[in-house]
Amino acid sequence: MAMNKPSMAQGKQIFDLLSKAEATGDQVQKLIENGDILRMLLDVSNLKDVDRKSLRKVLKVNPYILEEVESNYKYPSNYQPKLVSKQLAIFKQFYPRLDSKGVQELDIEIKDGFPMDQRAEMWQVVPKLSSIAKMYNIKDPYHSGYGSCLKIMTLCLECINNLKVVISHPPDCECKLRDGCEHAFYKKHIRLRPHSKVTLKRLEEKIDGDFLIFPMQSGKLYAGHSVRNARWKIEHNNQWALPSWVVGYHLMTHSKRLSTGTKLWIDCPGDEYSPFANEKFFYSLYFKFNVRLQLDNCDIMSIPEKIYGSASGFFK
Asked: Rounded to 5 degrees, what angle do the CA atoms 232, 238, 244 make?
């Protein structure tokens, strides 16, 4: 269908809308090429009434793009990604009965040059949520049982990394639990981000055995970003936000990654946390080093700081 040429007034109004939506040059070009979206705008009698939030969504404009600062924080010099075989050897100490055959078969392909996203740092191995849940008789590991699975992971980290859970909890919280760990991992406090949950489930279906393997980066790519800014970029750039379930096991197999307080800390954007257990999940978890390795929570809307960076996984 032919489209009427926009008038000068309409063109100016569209330009103003795109400016307010903070659209980039590439996004403007996509709009010009997408006749349906442009036709939709031209059919509106008063372009001033077009909702900026809706336009941003259509154009895939990141509303949190300004929530980042330049960061010079790096990884420790003695941190080096481990081979898949060495990671499995560490897991065997804690989960000797888990089946690693599927990952071992994939490791052969990796050694033969299986491609990995250039933004990734390494191939990471983690136990399947469902396998750990079955081992400890935890029901619904991807929903109500997720916190119980996280507690198992933190117990492993206590042994190998001297982890301390320091997640703060308000005195008037609805769960009424006083113990820090019990509180932090109560089912109404912690959940997986939907996109991350779907990704983990799909990986479970694709890989045989009790372990998963995928490419990841542990924060440097999004150093200085707020959690929600990093989340947006991750989920719109062929990646998935890593939860503390993955980051914790990364630290278990790579204890040097976070062994000093002067290096980049790790946000876990794949988790959603509700401090008051009131269904408002506006917090996330992160790992830091303060005398010892610690797991804490932070507001996803917090002012971005140089020392934080969100971890992400890649689909190849």
From this structure: 65
Question: Domain segments of the chain: what residues?
Answer: 8-59, 84-314
Q: Can you name the residues that pair with 314 across neighbouring β-strands? A: 239
Non-local (6+) Cβ contacts of 245 within 8 A are 126, 129, 146, 149, 150, 153, 192, 200, 270
> What does the pLDDT look like over 157-187, one tens digit per residue?
988 888 887 776 666 666 555 555 566 687 7
pLDDT digits (tens, 9 = 90+) for 16-41: 666 666 666 655 665 555 555 555 55
DSSP single-letter state for residue 22: T
CA 152 – CA 158 distance, rounded (Å): 10
Statement: residue 75 has pLDDT above 90: yes
3-class DSSP state of 125: strand
Are 210 and 290 within 8 A, CB to CB?
no
Helix, strand, coil percentages (3-state) for the chain, rounded to 5, are: 40, 15, 40
Report pTM.
Answer: 0.81
